[in-house]
Amino acid sequence: MNSRRASPPAAGKQPVPVASPWRASRERLRERAVKREAVIRAAAREFNRKGYHNTSLDDIAARLEVTKPTVYYYVTSKEQLLFQCFVAGVEQIRAAFRDVRHLEAPARERLNAVLRHYGQAVASEFGWCMVRAEDQDLSPAMSRHIKALKSEIDHGIRRLIREGVQDGSIQPCDPKMTAFALAGALNWIAHWYREDQSLTGAQIAEAFVAVFEGGLRPRAGAAPLPARRGPRRRARRVAEAVAR
Amino acid sequence: MNSRRASPPAAGKQPVPVASPWRASRERLRERAVKREAVIRAAAREFNRKGYHNTSLDDIAARLEVTKPTVYYYVTSKEQLLFQCFVAGVEQIRAAFRDVRHLEAPARERLNAVLRHYGQAVASEFGWCMVRAEDQDLSPAMSRHIKALKSEIDHGIRRLIREGVQDGSIQPCDPKMTAFALAGALNWIAHWYREDQSLTGAQIAEAFVAVFEGGLRPRAGAAPLPARRGPRRRARRVAEAVAR
DNA sequence: TAGGATAGCTACCCATGAGTATCATCGAGG
DNA sequence: CCTCGATGATACTCATGGGTAGCTATCCTA
Prior knowledge:
The structure is a homodimer. The first copy, chain A, is an all-alpha fold. Chain A contains 10 helices and no strands.
């Protein structure tokens, strides 16, 4: 979870039986970090449920069974809370790019790997915040920051697409529009996943990647198009399904 | 100043020289409808620019060069304003479905036609409202209403996909996930189109349809995949961007 | 030309919610 | 024991903004 947060050599089970005068304060620091993280998580969950503007800091505090000033003890403003949630979400995606960078595979496969991570991140608890953090809700400074991060990801996708076209693993296409289409489809998960959790994030990502890869038009080998559902082959099934 | 004040021989040049006692009142009624529409349009534009919660009714009124109570003379609440914008947007898409219903073409082509309209609607001035009208921002009643309309569209797309799979014009796939992917990509246009209007809505829709149709994987006839972009072309750029 | 509907404005109300000043508690160190 | 720093709660301030009351002007109909 808060891996990069622990500043002491926290990673392992430090035995440290020594009664260092700093131990207590370090302990407190760690505890504080944990609490801060809890505040951000709680905020993410509430934003996710009710949206940024419909969530008051009192709500978040109540969810943690503390009061508003306590929340302010860990963050400086509501805006910062949103920003932190955003960063937490976006960091997962940046990690995906890093993971993939040194892979020895055609660009399309690397892109797919990124998209799978991307989809899972959007379906995660920070997904909503990442996707929906609106520049309009934030100060100019933070807005710029968020835009930069979003742009970085966008350009990362575009680059993979360009490389794929280059190495022949991706159908020639407009990288910008294609990147928008892919990212948009994935981003949108955040809108409906809350209500419909019948699949895991990974499953959704997988299904989306399959759609992106293959496209709608049947691949070679499929039956040629009849004029219209003319012979109405097994339209039965459809009719039933539609009636549902 | 208030130019829209003079509207007697308004849009439609109706000859009607007869001095019907009802003419005037009908005229007023029409005028009222026009003004109401202007209010809704103005609201859509402001919501589009600044988001629902960051737009006050004073803003909308100011944009129309009237005052808040005047706005309330035409709508009953801010919520209703959002709802009307939503309906205006969604109606374009419903129209697309109607247009396509009696077309004698494979389902994939009918789907594409709908998606093209869809994309244009999202890029229109009501696009943002349609896409972003959140149930959390609305009363339960309106929320239900909006959900029903959204669901209608979703199921319309799913049905076209199912028909396409049936008639062989669409690659076999999961209709639900595919519909989510397509609609998501198109919906997301509303997020970035505001900032980047380098293309028209129609052009974007066209580009997206091309991506959906063909998919990323090269079609038969394309060059086979080389191992990887050998010389690690410009990985430089990324490293910089990330470091930023 | 009076009476009434229409349309708009000024001036207000008031709930919400972000953010803060101030006090209370508690554990640790001197 | 007493202080100090960390943590939390109580109880505010105050700006914003949705919504309304009620006056005014205009124009239509009688």
